[in-house]
Design a protein that fits this description.
- The chain is an alpha+beta fold.
- The protein has two domains: about 200 residues; about 100 residues, no CATH class.
- The chain has nine helices and twelve strands.
- The protein is flat, with a radius of gyration of 26 Å.
- The termini are far apart.
Length: about 325
């Protein structure tokens, strides 16, 4: 039971070759989008260098006091290629020796490197975004420019996306493939190892898939503006919100503004993660449209005359329905 199956050895060899390919492909990418750069700016991070629009980004960052990016300043570019080659050889060795224990050691080392690399990446982003030149041309007290570790973040008028690139996804797939063969081989041992490895699968996937949580962002009255009509949101009873699958948030002062925003296809439907409506009653929390009861009445004084109100409680909704002579409608009726 300690000897690996032929199929497992084949997968390990394929992984070893895939890791060598990562040496010539971008591992990570940071995209910057702004009105003055409609085509966007992209910084590509390879195992041993930076690529993409680095010079332009350095020129922009100079005005806000961020350090200039130079490849020679990164120790990681000298170390990471050697680490990748080391793991490629390790995969080959595990396939040749064919011992389950050696493959388990490989998984532990690979997982440790992945976690350490992400911590180091976050540390670099923190220093890069916080260690600013006090004599910079543009200074905003209390403002930091740390890019997101993964997902989306608004930095002044720039929207910043941080996601794995081709090399990064190959690295993730290699890790998942390694995890898969480890689980497969351990299932052959006994039922106890099967249960323990199920927990390992859940733990590894939570670290390796880099999934982005789709969460609502509370509307700040008097501070947030409607993304459609551009008016400042000041009424806490009729707001709404769209959150994309990448985590970007669009806020609206009226359900009608969100409907118009959707009808204009400003964001493609496939990119939308969740829609929210403000609870008309109670603490006015954001409700998923699937959990909300919606009423329509000309007596609702909404900011943009949408005449819609949402409720989390059916009894509360019925009371308001009688008071405002409102009609209960489904969300499909609302967006038609």
């Amino acid at each position: 039971m300690q000897i690996l199956k032929k199929s497992t050895r084949t997968i390990l060899v394929i992984c070893a070759i895939a890791l060598l390919i990562v040496l010539i492909l971008p591992i990570w990418r940071i995209e910057l989008n702004a009105p003055q750069y409609p085509e966007g700016l992209v910084m590509l991070i390879f195992a041993n260098k930076l690529g993409g629009s680095v010079d332009i980004i350095n020129g922009l960052n100079h005005y806000i006091g961020m350090k200039t990016l130079h490849e020679k300043d990164f120790l990681e570019f000298k170390v990471i290629p050697g680490i990748i080659i080391f793991f490629s050889v390790f995969f080959m060795l595990a396939a040749f020796v064919g011992k389950r224990k050696l493959m388990n050691v490989l998984l532990g080392c690979f997982l440790f490197f992945g976690i350490t690399a992400m911590i180091d990446f976050w540390r670099w982003e923190y220093q890069y975004g916080h260690d600013l030149n006090p004599d910079a041309a543009i200074r905003i007290p209390g403002m930091a420019y740390q890019p997101p570790l993964i997902g989306f973040k608004q930095l002044l008028n720039f929207g910043a996306y941080s996601v794995p690139d081709i090399g990064g996804w190959i690295f993730i797939l290699v890790g998942l493939a390694l995890l898969g063969v480890v689980v497969f081989e351990q299932k052959r041992v006994n039922q106890y190892l099967k249960i323990r490895n199920t927990h390992l699968v859940l733990f590894f996937l939570s670290l390796g898939l880099f999934s982005c949580n789709i969460q609502s962002d509370p509307i700040k009255l008097g501070r947030d503006n409607c993304h459609f009509c551009k008016m400042t949101i000041s009424d806490n009873k009729f707001g709404s919100e769209i959150v994309t699958k990448k985590g970007k948030v669009y806020k609206f002062d009226d359900t009608q503004c969100m409907i118009s925003f959707l009808q204009n296809n400003i964001v493609e439907k496939k990119e939308i993660g969740q829609l929210y409506l403000v609870d008309f009653s109670g603490s006015h929390e954001l409700l998923k449209v699937s959990d909300a009861y919606v009423l329509k009445s000309d007596l609702f004084v909404t900011p943009m005359k949408g005449f819609y109100a949402a409720f989390s409680d059916s009894k509360e909704m019925q009371q308001i329905q009688m008071l405002y002579k409102a009609k209960k409608v489904s969300w499909n009726e609302v967006i038609e």
